[in-house]
Amino acid sequence: GWIGPRIHERQGVAGVTTADKARLRVGMVGYAFMGAAHSQAWRTVNRVFDLPSQVSMVAVAGRDPAKVNAAAQRLGWEQAVTDWRELVARDDIDLIDICTPGDSHATIALAALAAGKHVLCEKPLANSVAEARDMASAAATARESGVRAMCGFNYRRVPAVALLRRLVEDGRLGEIRHVRAAYLQDWITDPQFPLVWRLRRELAGSGALGDIGAHIVDLTQYVTGQRITGVSALTETFIKRRPLPAESSGLSASAGPAPSGPPATEASASPAAEEAGIAAGTGPVTVDDAALFLARLEGGAVATYEATRFATGRKNGLRVEINGSLGSAAFDLERLNELEFYDATAPSARQGFTRILVTEPEHPYLSAWWPPGHLIGYEHSFTHQMRDLIEAVAGGTDPRPSFDDALQVQLVLDAVERSAANGSGWTAVGHA
Ligand code: SOE
Question: Is 185 in the pocket of ligand 1 (CB under 6 A)?
């Protein structure tokens, strides 16, 4: 079981005790961008929320000994190890947090669940439907012995998004007719931006589609409570080859001399390649730069989705607008403390979009933070995610998004790729 020895200790302010709290002992795999975001959330969550268990940041795993040691110190982990299998095998770890590229999610999650560890796995759940199915069925088996699995679609935990969900649930938008979703970024617009792992299919599974399109698929299915039933899609790769990175990190690598080993590369350009403008030290981009699709939702709504890394000037433009029979709502991640709401039932003289500042104690998650009117940011979504996960684990309930929810997203991604390959033909999405 996950409950470690009960601790009897005094912490924090003299005279105030948090004794008797069970521990949730975490091992994290990967320590780059997402590992840093998760570490901050693990460090913070018990200091903000009153939770049934106390997080212990037991160990972080990474392949490079010097780097993982430095990361452990910087991010607040008690130990560093160079093999994630060690985390899975240890008795003093209850939960494995997977913050690696998609190509290792399935292997790590399956091993962790088989060892009876709870799992938090970053999005997208896997690089293929087959892997996602294996993971969802392993999670179903593990659930029988009280082991929990969750996928890290963190934007569900932005208070304004949770408020939007509440408005839909309360019927304030009425019957949903339109969903308009876009996730717009521009960080690879420069053709000299190197071929980082997110641009390689064998590591990332897909491009803008799985990295950011997956977010708007999950978010809209969550907010509407409706599954996407079919799609018509197109994808595009604008820049076909890119310089090999000096060092492959997710978002911030610089171009430089080729590292040893893969990716598949033109080690030295052939005369034909040179003529075609392909330099030595570049490699092929094997994922989509942009993915667009039309969709139908099971409740009868129609939807558009756009995911791109080429929307010059848009840095983290996750936008969702929903139009219903009784009203509309719109969210933009670049203004994440706000939600626009239009109430079509208000007297017509007073109708119009209202900008709700989502900073009040009555709003989801916010009573634990600052006095009314004070703002929060990107990192809070991860702290909220950890809060919900800890409560589910301690309370013996299933955290959402479950691996089944994430498999449902994977089925949409797969249908989008099949539709795009098939000249945008209508492609049904199966049920997880
Ligand atoms: C890069 O596109 C990225 O960091 C994604 O990987 C995240 O999932 C998204 O939240 C922000 O953009």
Answer: yes
